[in-house]
Each structure stands twice: as C-alpha cells, then as structure tokens.
Amino acid sequence: IVLGHIHDHLREGASEDMAFCQEMAQRYALPFAVKQIRVRELARKEGLSLETAARNYRYQALEEMAGEMQCADIALGHTADDQAETILSHFLRGSGVRGLAGIPFRNGRRVRPILTLYRHEILDYLRQCGETYRVDESNRDLRYRRNLIRHRLLPQLTREFNPNLPETLNRIAEIHQQVEHFLDFQAQIALAEITKVRTQHKIVLDIDRFWRYFTIVRKYILRNALEALSGKLFRPDFAALSRIEDLISRREIGRRLPLQGKWEVLIDHDGFVLWDGHWRRFNLEIKPGQSAVLDSKRILSISEKLPVNRNVKKVANTYNQYIDADQIQGVFRVRNVKSGDRYKPLGLGGHKKVLDLLSDRKVPLHLRPEVPVLIYGDEIVWVVGFQINENFKITDQTRQMLHLQIKEVVS
What we know:
Radius of gyration: 29 Å
CATH architecture of the domain at 283-408: 3-Layer(bba) Sandwich
Shape: elongated
Largest sheet: 5 strands, antiparallel
Strand order of the largest sheet: 6-7-10-9-8
CATH topology of the domain at 283-408: Phenylalanyl-tRNA Synthetase, Chain B, domain 3
Number of helices: 12
Structural class: alpha+beta
CATH class of the domain at 283-408: Alpha Beta
Helix content: 25-40%
C-alpha cells in the first residue's frame, strides 16, 4: 500500500493537506508519493474549465504515481453521498444514461472501495478509531454548484419529498450503470468494425457503416473514439455529439467542426476523421547515396550516381523514380507539401499546384499535409508517391541518373 497525494495549488490549505497525508504515512509506516500540478496553468493551456482540468490532471497524476510505484490499483475515497450528489447534479443538467450511471465502482485500475458507504458511517468509524481527518475548505463554498446541491438542495428534497432520497439516487445509478455497460460494449464492437485508420492522433471511420447503427449506439461510438484519442481528457457531451452527427449527415467533403481544445472532426473522401490536428513534419537533408527515415513505415533512399539506363522509364512507379543526375551537384531537402507549391508533373504538360494534384488523385484531406516533397535548390523534384518534375526527367542527353526509392519498413 502506498499513500498518494495530489498538490494542485488551487487552495490556500493545499500544503497543509499534503503535510497531513505525509504525517499519516509516517505514522503507519507506509510509502508516501506526491505529485504537484499547476491546474490553473494547464486549464489555460488546454482550453479547459478549471473543474475539468482539475479532475483530468488529478487522475492523470494518480495514474503516473501508480505506474512509478508499481501499484495494481488506485483506491479513491468517493462515498454513497458523493454518488447521490452526482446523480442529482447530472439529472438537473439533463444527462443521459452515462451521466445517470454516476461514479463507477471501478474504472481501469481506479477503484472506489467505500462507494457504498455514507459519509456519516465513515465519520462514525473514524471517531471510534480516534482518527483525525481534514475537510477541503472549498467544499463549504456555496458559490460552487456542487456545494449548493450538497448543503442545500439535497437536504431540502430529502426533508420535504423523500427521506430515503440518497438511497434512491444510488439505486438509479446502479440501474443506469447496467445500461451503460451494455451500450458501451456494443459501441466498442461497432467502433472496431467501422474503423478504417487509427493512429495516435486520429481515427478515420466509415460513414456508410456508421449510419447502420441506432442513434444511441452512434453517439457511444463517437464518444468512445474521442475519449480513446484524448486519453479521456476530452469527454464530449450530448450537444457536442449531436453537432458531430449533424456534420457527418451532410457528407460535405472538407467541412470541419472544431471541438473542445485542439480536437476537430473532418469530413473526408475515405470517411470522417476525428483528430487532434497533428501531422508528421519533415525537414531533412539527404545526399545521393543516403537514406532518410520519413516515419515508422517509410524510408526514402537516393542512390549514388549511376550510368544511365533508358529502360528504367518502363519500371518507374509510385515508389521508384529515376531522374537526370547530370544537373545535381548538392544536397536534396525533404519537407512537407505547402499550400503554394507548384511544379511540372511529368506527362501533364505544364505547371500544377501540388495540392490540386493531390485533390485530383483523391488523396484524403487528413493525409495531404503529410505528403513529402523532395526539393533540389528551389524546385520540387518529386512529390513522393506521384510524378517527378518534368525538368528532372531522363533525356537523350542524360549520362548519369539517380534512383529515388521509397522503402516500406516491415515491422
């Protein structure tokens, strides 16, 4: 057992809370772990509310501590009163099944062993043991919605309408947790079936197959996908999910929907994309006779200068191109395509914007920023995966050539 504490720098008494926990660990001869997080700074940086940032980064810090201390589980102190307050708050907010399922007993390795016990039961036990405890002073501040529910609304409803209201609310949570588990299970199966591409930064889903599912399952698919991408830092609400569905239903290629923080949805040629706007960036120098790693799946290699073989024109393809080496004296550069890039694609009889070429070839929008271009001087030599520049083709006067090749990495 390890006692863990998060110092969030939000309250005046935060340092005293940490000292209390440290003293308790020493008294029981238990290891003590602490993480300090600047919640206000993180909230501003990520564009999150203070409450959301505090919750997300506290959990993240606890997960990090558990990993560092090699702990199998993280035990949290939520009680049945917390559950009742959560359900009432979510009901007033208009939450659906997930909101009315409340606080789960287990979520990954986070467990809540006293979730079925009420606050008065826990305080009675502490008094019997002669154990002291601390109260977060911010819990008394009635400017916060949660505290108004705890200190005013829930007690009044219990007095005037249902003396067993906390128990009733906990029962509502139990029922909705069962429904939530079923819908989540169905959505996970569906998500796996309609996923076309999945990376660390994006998920591409099949639009036609997406629409075959019931409305509620579709929303769970979107929610699960976005939470998986964000590490559950982004939890879309019903309104956000409805906006995403509306965008998808229009099927207008190129339309985007900005979401919370850096997340967005993009309608593309090959489906719809949920992503964080990140793409791989290239900025490399490469000489003849060298190779450059573009990403985990591709290596670009340029041969030494070779005697010209005019039959290579017949074997040139997407991943193998041959250029006139007589005019090459220096180094090449590899970078991402830019919006103003133009060149003379071999065989097309004139200049063309690179992005127009990619559009004509139906390259998905989410992949276009990641298309590498090979540059010599100020000219594009090769849009990797497409034609070389007409100006660098092998002619009757060519004496030496270079072989440009993309090699796929076999994992």
